[in-house]
Amino acid sequence: MTMDVVVVMDGPETVVPATDTSFGLAAAAIERGHRCWHCTPADLSVVDGSVRARVREIRPDAEAIDPLGLGGATDVELASVDVVLVRPDPPFDQDYLHLTLVLDLVADATLVVNSPHGLRTANEKLYALRFPDVTPPTVVTADRERLLAFAATHDAAVVKPIDGHGGRSVLVVRPGDENAASILDTVTARGTVPVVAQRYLPGVRDGDKRILLLDGEPLGAILRRPTGDDFRANICVGGAVEAVDLDDDDRRIVDAMAPALRADGLHLVGIDVVDGHLTEVNVTSPTGLRQLCELSGARPDLDVVRWLEHRAGATASTSNPRPEDPTP
Ligand SMILES: Nc1ncnc2c1ncn2[C@@H]1O[C@H](COP(=O)(O)OP(=O)(O)O)[C@@H](O)[C@H]1O
Ligand SMILES: [Mg+2]
Question: Which of the residues 280, 290, 301, 309 is marked catalytic?
Fold first, then answer.
């Protein structure tokens, strides 16, 4: 079965092949004989209830100036393709919400990864709170005094915007620091915007593990180590990447989450584990697959595609009859 896969993502100019999971997924699908198409959220239209996408075929070449090698634009009815990968980068904003509401219209006919419902359900910082046995002590509040008391109880706290990503505005607050109150006023917009505060986990110096999960099962993991004085391990702020195995804490975390991830249609996610604790659940466009392939020498990218083949077949046989041939 040759699949048509549409990747809804940011513009082609954003793609860095060495680190771009969307690029890696498209290249792996094509390697297995499927056809892949690129579009952005702005390329979707709904016409009389049917979702149309203006797509361009992907012909990947990691060395090229345009690594996606996009062909000419053509129109496709999204319900007639086999898989839609939802991969715009966070934040999950109003535009992202609208994208999921449009994709709801095809989610019965086509395999949408991650499911539009799951993308709305799982805020990347708050979803972890469903698993209190494996998360660090956490408060979510805009209240400065509560945040200062929390930091004092735990020696230090890490505060983060609820819709943040890439390490942006993630800060350590230590009691007694003359900047602490001012930092909290800044991140909460003077007590009007709630933030997430977690106990500062000193083991972050040994790295932040990114575990990629497919349908609740680990595909593998990479370790991101902070460099210099920065405690943040995000690759985009300079974190160094190395290979790593899952340990008992990781398996306990994965086991705790797997049923919820499956129930919420969160097929491909990247969880962050610091010091044996779950700190974040990345669902919008989790990264790390390219580095995992390179460092492990394995092909978890092909595992993802084989799973898509399996699940798309199941979706096709249980959904309404589909047009014989997709428009492209
Ligand atoms: N509770 C914590 N204790 C110590 N360091 C943390 C904690 N939470 C996050 N960090 C550090 O901050 C970085 C960014 O935090 P994270 O929650 O993953 O948000 P983002 O969405 O910005 O990646 C992590 O890579 C890690 O280095
Ligand atoms: Mg993170």
Answer: 280
